[in-house]
Amino acid sequence: MGLLMLLAAGAGAAGAVAAAPVVLATVGFTSAGIAVGSYAASMMSAAAVANGGGVAAGSLVAVLQAAGAAGIPVAAQAAVGATGAGVAAVLGILI
Q1: What tens digit of pLDDT does each residue of 18-52 get?
Q2: CB 20 within 8 A of CB 80
Q3: How far apart, in whole angstroms, are the C-alpha atoms of residue 33 and residue 64?
Q4: Which of 4, 12, 33, 36 is deepest in the core (most CB within 10 A)?
Q5: In terms of Cα–Cα distance, which of 26, 3, 2, 23 is closest to 84?
Q6: What is the DSSP letter of 54?
Q7: At residue 61, does pLDDT exceed 70?
Q8: What is d(CA 84, CA 43) in angstroms, rounded to the nearest whole number?
Q9: How crowded is the C-beta side of 74, counted as CA atoms within 13 Å?
Q10: CA-CA distances (angstroms) from residue 65 to 12, 35, 50, 60, 86?
Q11: What angle do CA 71, 36, 74 make, to 5 degrees?
Q12: pTM of the entire structure?
């Protein structure tokens, strides 16, 4: 693994960890709750309709809302960073 590959993997990991909270807020999972009229609100509505009026605990909407409201846990940040590093390394090989 060359130096360029290591740099790409590091940048991918850092970029993914930094971008995750921004992406959550952008789609509507904010610290104040789900933003009205956002993509997150549409997801919540669809989940509630599918579950008979409520959003199930542990569902994707519930997990993303928890991450948006309380922040992303360290273990999840590690997973996001590892994924970002892997994607960047693969792109480094292809480019």
Answers
A1: 999 999 999 999 999 999 999 999 999 999 999 89
A2: yes
A3: 11
A4: 12
A5: 23
A6: S
A7: yes
A8: 25
A9: 0
A10: 24, 10, 18, 8, 26
A11: 10
A12: 0.76
**What is the chain's Cα-based Rg?**
16
* Chain length of the chain: 95
* 53/46 Cα distance (integer angstroms): 10
Instruction: State the first-to-last Cα distance of the chain, in angstroms, to the nearest integer.
Output: 14
CA 37/CA 30 separation, integer angstroms: 13
Residue 37 Cα distances to 34, 62, 70, 72, angstroms: 9, 17, 21, 23
In the three-class reduction of DSSP (H, G, I as helix; E, B as strand; rest coil), residue 78 is classed as helix
Residues 72 and 29: their CA atoms lie apart, in Å, by 12
d(CA 20, CA 72): 8
Amino acid identity at 8: A
